[in-house]
Amino acid sequence: MCLAVPAKVVEIVDVENQIAKVDIGGVRRNISVALLEDVKVGDWVLVHVGFAIQKVDEEEAMQTLTLLRQLGQDIEDEFAAPQTDDEGGYP
Amino acid sequence: MRFIDEFRDSELAKRVVREIERIAEGRYFRIMEICGGHTHTIYRYGLHDVLPANIELVHGPGCPVCVLPMGKVDDAIAIAKHDDVILATFGDMMRVPGSEGSLIDAQADGADVRMVYSPLDALKLAHQNPDRKVVFFAIGFETTAPGTAVTLMRAKQLEIRNFFVFCNHVLVVPAIKALLDSPETQLDGFIGPGHVTTVIGSKAWEFIPRDYGKGIVISGFEPLDMLQAIYMLVRQLVEGKPRVDVQYTRAVRPDGNTKAKEVMAQVFELRETFEWRGLGWIEKSALKLKPEFAEFDAELHFELPRRQVADPKVCQCGEVLRGAILPWECKVFGTACTPEHPIGACMVSSEGACAAVYQYGRYSRKVRELLQHL
Question: What DSSP string runs through A11-59?
């Protein structure tokens, strides 16, 4: 029930009744944007039971991905560092 | 960016898992994911299998269909049985058993029950069928309630007289408080519900560290979102600094969706108390229509049986919803109770923990091992 999907606004269909057309992974349908302020064409929104419940912030999404990529990067760097030819192991 | 594929990168996921292993080493953490959507992500993407054994995930009560007691299904069926009624509800609700069958069974017996995608579709049905009474059986948490509120405001504006709402919207925060107040609950922290929190805002969760000394991280729904949220929560716990952190920053703001909260406040008010399956009666944990919207209130318009119906004796949905047992520990899981023939709601809903484990868990190494020991 609380599943919501990201969708891109492609057209404001009815300004008075706050209806917009969105693209959800290639499928287009009309939804209500009455729960949000100033929805514009090109905005990404989260759609739940036919309503846009929140805008999706692209900059924040990029930052989350950057943080994710940084996680464990130190360890990764260490493993990726060129190994010496010391294959004798430790005493 | 499509906000989906980017958060499903398996190489990146492996790295995050290694980091979780590293920082959690030597400790044991019991974490509840509140939302049923998260439970499904865990099993669907096999997160359960890749996480280290010292991170235990416990499934929470965040499945609105599951927490509705059987008596409410009986009430909805009683409404649907009126000849002049079309009962509209979400697909998830159709197959949930009441004491004498589900809405699908009622439909087979001749009741006019329709599945809708949105409450606005129910309003459209009312508009198209002026000689019938269209009753929307409204369920859902704070994610769903604003949509019902907008629909009711629209009905009022259009003066649609044959539209009614049987309101069963419930609130997550009081349920989690009730859970935390129970001595049975032993948890180190929570993965918070991302979509509910887009509406209520992350500030609504501040009571968890403040009053209970536990941590919470509000998470998105893709596998990488959840792994990052678990990493963030474990880090809080290791540091001994429980707080409210937001992983799902692309959609969650501290105050949530102010407009949605205003719309809800215009249409709904709190019920004194409401019965939850598994959690019992919880004060101020559900919404009803305000007197200004009384003309649309199905509870005032129809005679309801309002019976309190206990779950079947073999059904352990209540314990699953409290996180007291895991789905496969239920006596009838996968045997008498399956998605085709559900005994309890947790096996029906697309957010039910039992449905998640039944659907994906058999591919899980951990679940298979655990089932062998039983």
Answer: EEEETTTTEEEEEETTEEEEEE-TTSSS--TT-EEEEETTEEEEE--HH
pLDDT at B349: 86
B90, B116 Cβ separation under 8 angstroms? yes
Chain A touched by B137 (CB under 8 Å): no
Co-location of B291 and B332 in the same domain? no
Residue A11's domain is classified under what CATH number? 2.30.30.140
Contacts of A32 in chain B (CB under 8 A): 118, 120, 147, 150
Helical packing angle, B223-239 and B10-24, nearest 10° = 20
Instruction: Tell me how far apart the alpha carbons of residues A79 and B232 are, in angstroms, rounded to a whole number.
Output: 24
Chain B CB contacts of A73 below 8 Å: 15
* ipTM of the shown complex: 0.92
Q: Which of residues 242-281 of B touch A (CB under 8 A)?
A: 247, 249-253, 257, 259-260, 263
Section B83-92 average pLDDT: 96
Nearest to A1 among B2, B65, B253 (CB): B65
Look at chain A and report how many structural domains it folds into. Answer: 1
CA dihedral B166, B172, B177, B182 (to 10 degrees): 70
Contacts of residue B152, Cβ cutoff 8 Å, sequence gap at least 6: B165, B267, B289, B293, B296
Domain carrying residue B165: 69-169+257-301
Interface contact B15, partner A, CB < 8 A = yes
This prediction's pTM? 0.92
Per the CB < 8 A criterion, the answer to whether B94 and B137 are in contact is no
B263 within 8 A of A18, measured Cβ to Cβ: no
